[in-house]
Amino acid sequence: MHDTRNDLPANARASMAAALNARLAGLIDLGLALKHAHWNVKGPHFIALHELFDEIRGTLDPHADDLAERVTALGGTAQGTLQQVASGSALAPFPAEETDGMILVAELADRVAALGKSVRAGITEAEDAGDAGSADLLTGLSRALDKALWLLEAHLQKR
Ligand SMILES: [Fe+2]
Prior knowledge:
Layout: H1 10-40, H2 46-73, H3 82-88, H4 101-128, H5 132-153
Helix pairs in contact: 1-2, 1-3, 1-4, 2-5, 4-5
This protein binds fe (ii) ion (FE2).
Residues 38, 54 line the site of fe (ii) ion.
């Protein structure tokens, strides 16, 4: 951890830097999965899904920047290399050869839901650490993931 004039206790800053880095890895992993699906999707709903996957990625990307810069604001180091993301993400590996539109929607929904659960737990971690700024940031990300999950799941639901 780097020295800072930020008055949050050092142990709180360190634990939140680690917690935020873990969600950052998941979010970058999800962003790559969304682009992969955007490029490779096939089927009768091609254009809608091609555009939807990119739109969701676009709404999530600014949150990754916010998470990373919160880590550094707390005196930590943002873990953004490919290798750090690969080892840090808790998401299941994305099925690289899948192209069926509805299967891709379901695979993405699984990962959005898993990350959403992790981010919700992170809000509690931040509150317990007395870090209202990180709790607020994670709350915004949680809301964005909930919306992304709705956009995906609406394709899978009949009613
Ligand atoms: Fe594109």
